[in-house]
Design brief:
By secondary structure, the chain is mainly α. Helix content is 45%, strand content 0%. It has 4 helices and no strands. The model has no long low-confidence stretch (mean pLDDT 86).
Length: 67
């Protein structure tokens, strides 16, 4: 996360607090939550809360979904 002012945080939380509180980590990275970060390292989907690409590979290997 980046350094930000208390004023920015208040403004951010005033945007859609119900959305943020229902999100993993209390931010919506795919929306305005990206403003909280300076950079992202790692798999985008894992950061969002579900490692979708490894999960799909796992399901394909087991024949649960078509490969």
């Amino acid at each position: 996360m980046r350094d930000f002012t208390p004023e920015f945080l208040s403004s951010y939380l005033d945007g859609s607090p119900a959305d943020y509180l229902s999100s993993v980590g209390a931010y919506k990275l795919e929306e305005t939550g990206i403003q909280l970060f300076e950079k992202i390292e790692g798999d985008y989907f894992t950061i969002l809360g579900l490692p979708i690409l490894p999960l799909l590979g796992f399901l394909r290997q087991r024949g649960t979904i078509a490969s």
